[in-house]
Amino acid sequence: MSNELLKIKNLKTSFRIDDEYYAAVDDVTLTLNKNEILGIVGESGSGKSALAFSIMRLHTRAKIEGEISLNNQNIVKMPKSKLNKIRGDEMAMIFQDPLTALNPLMPIGRQIEENLFLHNKKLGQQGRKKRTIELLNLVGIPRPERVYEQFPHELSGGMRQRVIIAIAIANDPELLIADEPTTALDVTIQAQILDLIQELKQKIHAGIILITHDLGVVAEMADRVAVMYAGQIVEIAPVDKLFANPLHPYTRSLLNSVPTEGQDRLHVIQGVVPTLKNLPRTGCRFAERIPWVDASHHEENPDLHEVEPGHFVRCTCYKHFYFPDNKEEQENGVS
Amino acid sequence: MAFLDVKDLQVYFPIKGGILNRTVDHIRAVDGVSFELEQGKTYGLVGESGSGKSTTGRAIIGLEDVTSGQVLFNGKDVTDKKAKTKDFRKDVQMIFQDPYSSLNPRKRVLDIVAEPLRNYEKLSKLEERKRVQELLDIVNVSSDSIFKYPHEFSGGQRQRIGIARAIALKPKLIIADEPVSALDVSVQAQVLNFLQEIQKELNLTYLFISHDLGVVKHMCDNISIMYKGRYVEQGSTKDIFENPQHIYTKRLIAAIPDIDPKNRERQFKFRQEIAKEYRESYDRYFDGNGLAFGLQSISSTHKVALPEKG
Fold first, then answer.
1. pLDDT score recorded for residue A330
2. Per-residue 3-state assignment (H helix, E strand, C coil) for A246-259
3. Per the CB < 8 Å rule, is A216 touching B256?
4. pTM: predicted TM-score of the whole model, two decimal places
5. In chain B, at which end, N or C, are there fewer CB atoms within 10 A of the end residue's CB?
6. At the top level of CATH, which class does the domain A4-32+55-227 belong to?
7. Residue B267's closest chain A neighbor by CA?
8. How many CA atoms, within 13 angstroms, populate the side-chain half-sphere of residue A280?
9. What is the ipTM of this complex?
10. Residue A244: its chain B contacts at CB < 8 A?
11. Confidence band for A335, pLDDT divided at 50, 70 and 90
12. What are phi and psi of B192, to 5 degrees?
């Protein structure tokens, strides 16, 4: 049997602006295996959260085309009653903001039990409480019996994020989507939460999609990485290949703009991320931000090309890309 | 004489309680912090949320009341609100964290950037417009956008408009409170480069407040690490990153994600070692209340919070 957990094919998620649909996620194809962490990186507005929400079918007004199948069940066409059965059970999500994702009027214990109650009717009240305490223990919350009775405002940000993780993993989901799980947290707590996610992967063998804009987090966590720009995946590769040999101009620019050892000036990507309405729909979407690369080097309808086994890059412009402030690279021409 | 000299700064917030709503206790947000700034240098203040780093910055500029201690700016005492003269307010400016809430959405860019000019300099409409256009040129925002409103700009552009406002009066000291933490990496790069450029041009001094050690390492000459209102370590960037002494500093440095996946194993082991050391040697570094000790010099530039010997 194959190891494939989630399969997305030609996914297009569009939103309506002034009577017209604009695709925020455009032609995304990817697979996720069991026991694998797939990192998705990109700047704000690149469509990474829109993609996560599409998988969970959490968009209320979006038009979703294409195919998303989890364990061979098509999520796109699934009726709501069925969806409610698998959401929180087979697939679950860790939300970004621990301050708003919890209900401020409900004790922590009940918020976790709610998820158990909805998906596991066999568990009695006592069983649910036992499992909840167990979960709180699992995510590393000290004195779980006390926290069980407490309200969200009594906990710190890191603790709240752990509660959200506890809710997400309550029913041992097979697919776990973590949407910027540590962005709102301090570095030391971030390190703890990331360790926790790694541990969970080993314990429940889930497939995890980790969405983040922090390249360091991806480098430490992911098995494979997809880089998104303007709604498309521009590069996807195993993590060591992506960091050792980044190919797409966007990936390279992003990596170059992170402060590292012995760097005087940081690389700046020209221009801005285009808004949904102004997205170039034909040609290479990154072209306007690297104007020094000749137009003839871009493809008309860029597709993902497999450069090495498992390493895909969109458009052919990467072959001719160089950083304008790097004289050497410019003169040598590029391979 | 130091350019800015902060001596034993304390900022306490009262906790009110009881029937009469009397002050029952204090939160010691900043609990005895001292440092000196040299002109033209960048000074980093690092800590986790709640460590008091923002409060320190806000107290220096006068947005919080100082409980005790002294702030000397160019040798003049500016601790008290009344002592903050017009000149001081002109020379010290602030860049705020959130570019989405620090610009008034109902004002045009022209009015936002010109506001400090209107307060301190009497300029004609035409001169004012010219100055604003110059400032927008410096921060690389196209100068024909002076009649636009903040919502028409991206996060990076907004942050740069905030910077244009901060440098409008040619200040000497800029307190930058997490200036890039709300921005994407590529935009962050733009703002950081830009802060370095104008520093050279205008001989600015920065008090750079941030929780991101990577950014601080890139920007700062000197760094202080703050924990629960006190300093745990103070030194040059080299001292802090190559020779960290305090367990809390080590822990912060270990927590930075490494950008090379090849180092993953090593980093993981390193972090576990540090976590172990932290648990085992906690009592050596913190007193009975979980607070840091006073600073002891270990070299001419490097100070660490350790219990007094003996």
1. 56
2. CCCHHHHHHHHCCC
3. yes
4. 0.85
5. C
6. alpha beta
7. A220
8. 14
9. 0.80
10. 262
11. very low
12. -65, -45
